[in-house]
Design goal:
Layout lengths: L4 H16 L3 E5 L5 E4 L1 H7 L3 H4 L13 H13 L12 E4 L5 E11 L6 E8 L4 H25 L3 H16 L3 E7 L5 E8 L10 E3 L5 H8 L3 E3 L12 H5 L4 E9 L2 E10 L7 H26 L2 H34 L8 H27 L8 E3 L1 H15 L4 E6 L6 E3 L1 H17 L5 E10 L7 E2 L9 E8 L6 H5 L18 H11 L3 E6 L5 E8 L22 E5 L3 H13 L3 E5 L2 H10 L5 E5 L8 H11 L4 E6 L2 H10 L5 E4 L4 H12 L2
Parallel strand pairs: 13-15, 20-21, 20-22, 22-23, 23-24
Antiparallel strand pairs: 1-2, 1-5, 3-4, 4-5, 6-7, 6-11, 7-8, 9-10, 10-11, 12-14, 15-17, 16-18, 17-19, 18-19
Helix pairs in contact: 5-6, 5-9, 5-10, 5-11, 6-9, 9-10, 10-11, 10-16, 12-13, 13-15, 17-18
């Protein structure tokens, strides 16, 4: 029967819907042959539309699971039924170029034809904007942590300089990255390192430090420079080699040493308008890490032993604020993303968010370890399960230490100790690394823990620990070369080391000693040449519930309607904190500076809490703002926050006891607990 005008119209509408549908659609026969494909499918899978027609659907399945897919398809053909998306199945589609995409697939059988057909709707999970942004920020955090580890371990600054362009290019997924340094005469810039360089750019290439050159223009601007499209750039002369290589957009930030511009870190991409705020913040943090590493190298050449400790403090303190602000934004947005109703049923999206959160947490742990290295950390004591900590540390060391070293744990049931868990783990790791170095041919590394009723005589430590308070003794024993008496007596001295030049700073056991003393404990060394070494940490035992240990939800409940004056100069951090406060049902007034906050107080004295960062750019510091605010409103609660531990230590020493301190990065629960501590005091 010929088609009526109405049926032809219906066919046209359905065909238009099929072609316009945002998900990828494939119509297949019982043998898995593709009969129809919409443009979205061609774009996702990397094929031309005509290439997909007549192709077996098995071609789109990775080789490793192709045989299983064929069996599944045959079974489905015998009993076809609709299968919606969101079935918590990890599925992968193979593109034409061999790459793979994580997807979700819905299946719908179509009856009423001579041959039963199946419609497969395919959705690219990685294309979810919020998931892509979370993964991107987590990737940036992971690469910053990678450079942080390198900056701490490498003694030669050229090693760090060589790796920065590679890390920048990998993290930002761009084609080119390079570092330019200003020569001593200030007149020229020299290309120190790079990847994806164009003809005419080689290591050692020099260009004039003038505004008409790419690095010279950045230096003349005194701040970051974004190039949306080199083809229309008029501010400086664009080398023809950039255009010949297909480079379209660029981003460059300054390398600054104590206010002096010493170079430029730049990246380039073949995509137009490739760089936004996230990329800028990442590159600036990378720049801070690099310049801090260069500062350390210069300082170690020029300063004596007493000045070295200060240079290490500059290394950690110089990056902690920016790094922790970045982590606050990443962790805060991940927490918000995790709780979005739209993703509540997306198992794979939740898995991606959890992976990103773990990477962000590793970045925060790295910052903490750097601060512990300089003894500028703010300790957060809590009840620590010693047995679990030693087992976890041993498992990690088995994967990383020489296989010729056997690791044993002798930790019978032991009461919890009161310490900062992260810093205690760092101290034990420090001692374990020293033990490894003392056993170049292999040996035994043994961990032991037991209760101890009092600090033994002759142990180095805090005077309060000698009062007879119960302790937990944690010992690390190696079968290495041991120490001579004169070495053992000087083991805790800062900068004292028996390692060859470039292998040790002499800060290891000194840092452990500082942590133990801060924790009101003690440390002892038992060693002799040829008999190995035992280092024992004496950490106070938990004798009463610690704050937060038995905390219920009511302990950190925030009364709805609490009026909060929020002061934070970083817009991204401010947005995260606003989201947290909104979730706590607070009434929030946000300011970007102390001066703006005082104006808000002039017009409204009904605030219950001042929540302010300590460092507020070039304006008034948060501590000064808090003092002036409380002078105007004596009942105002004060909660200070900072990602710079030295600031928190200073505020802890000089501020009134009623002011609470909150270390970045923090979670919404930690913020709620801190607010409750202030307003319920």
């Amino acid at each position: 029967m010929p088609a009526t005008p109405a049926s032809r119209s219906d066919h046209s509408v359905f065909r238009s819907l099929f072609d316009a549908y945002p998900d990828s659609l494939l119509v297949c026969d019982p043998h898995g042959t593709i009969l129809l494909a919409n443009p979205s499918a061609a774009a996702l899978l990397g094929y031309a539309h005509d290439e997909l027609i007549g192709m077996s659907v098995e071609t789109l399945v990775p080789d490793s699971i192709r045989h299983r897919h064929a069996a599944y398809r045959e079974g489905y053909g015998k009993s076809p039924k609709p299968r919606p998306m969101g079935m918590q199945m990890d599925l992968v589609a193979r593109r034409k170029d061999g790459s793979e995409a994580m997807v979700e697939i819905a299946l719908s059988p179509i009856q009423g034809h001579d041959t039963p057909l199946v419609v497969a709707a395919i959705r690219d999970i990685g294309a979810y904007p919020r998931v892509k942004q979370a993964l991107q920020r987590a990737r940036y955090s992971e690469h910053l942590a990678q450079l942080g580890r390198l900056a701490v371990d490498a003694r030669d600054p050229q090693v760090v300089l060589d790796q920065v362009p590679t890390i920048a290019a990998q993290a930002l997924q761009v084609e080119a990255a390079m570092v330019w340094l200003v020569e001593g005469d200030g007149q020229t810039c020299r290309l120190i390192s790079g990847v994806g360089l164009v003809p005419g750019e080689e290591f050692g290439t020099r260009v004039e430090n003038t505004p008409d050159t790419a690095p010279g223009f950045v230096l003349s601007q005194g701040g970051p420079v974004v190039v949306a499209d080199y083809r229309s750039e008029q501010r400086f002369a664009v080398p023809q080699a950039y255009l010949d290589a297909g480079l379209v957009s660029g981003l460059a930030v300054l390398l600054s040493d104590r206010g002096r511009h010493i170079g430029v870190l730049a990246v380039r991409s073949r995509q137009a308008m490739r760089f936004g705020d996230d990329e800028l913040h990442f590159l600036e943090s990378l720049s801070n890490l690099l310049t801090t590493s260069l500062q350390r190298a210069q300082s170690e050449e020029a300063l004596n032993h007493a000045q070295r400790l200060e240079s290490v403090g500059q290394l950690t303190g110089g990056i902690a604020h920016d790094f922790n602000n970045l982590l606050t934004v990443i962790q805060g947005n991940l927490q918000v993303l995790e709780e979005l109703p739209a993703l509540a049923g997306e198992a794979y999206a939740q898995q991606l968010v959890a992976a990103a959160a773990r990477a962000s947490k590793r970045g925060a742990e790295l910052t903490g370890k750097l601060l512990a290295f300089s003894r500028r950390q703010v300790l957060q004591p809590s009840a620590v399960d010693v047995n679990a900590l030693l087992q976890s540390l041993a498992d990690m060391l088995r994967r990383t230490l020489d296989q010729h070293i056997r690791i044993e744990v002798d930790a019978p049931p032991c009461p919890p100790c009161l310490a900062d868990a992260g810093q205690l783990e760092s101290a034990l790791l420090n001692i374990a690394i020293n033990a490894r170095d003392a056993m170049p041919g292999g040996g035994i590394l043994r961990f032991h823990a037991e209760p101890c009723e009092a600090l033994p005589d002759g142990v180095h430590g805090d005077a309060d620990a000698a009062s007879g308070a119960p302790l937990v003794a944690i010992s690390i024993t190696d079968s290495g070369t041991g120490m001579a008496d004169e070495v053992r007596e000087r083991a805790f001295e800062p900068f004292f080391t028996t390692k060859e030049a470039g292998r040790g700073t002499g800060l290891g056991l000194s840092t452990v000693y500082g942590f133990v003393k801060q924790s009101k404990g003690g440390i002892a060394i038992d060693s002799a040449v040829g008999r190995g070494t035992t280092v024992t940490l004496y950490i106070p035992r938990v004798t009463e519930p610690t704050r937060g240990q038995d905390a219920s939800a009511a302990d950190h409940a925030v009364a709805p309607g609490l009026r909060v004056l929020l002061v934070e100069d970083d817009a991204d951090v401010r947005a995260v904190v606003e989201t947290f406060l909104d979730a706590l049902r607070c009434e929030v007034t946000s300011c970007s500076s102390g001066e703006q906050a005082l104006l808000a107080l002039d017009t409204d004295l009904g605030f219950d809490l001042l929540l302010t960062d300590i460092a507020l750019g070039t304006g008034m510091r948060g501590t000064k703002l808090a003092a002036r605010a409380q002078a105007r409103l004596p009942t105002l609660g004060v909660l200070l926050m900072s990602g710079f531990s030295a600031e928190l230590l200073e505020a802890d020493r000089d501020s009134p006891p009623a002011w609470e301190l909150l270390r970045k990065p923090y979670s919404r629960i930690e913020l709620a607990r801190a607010i409750a501590s202030v307003v319920n005091a």
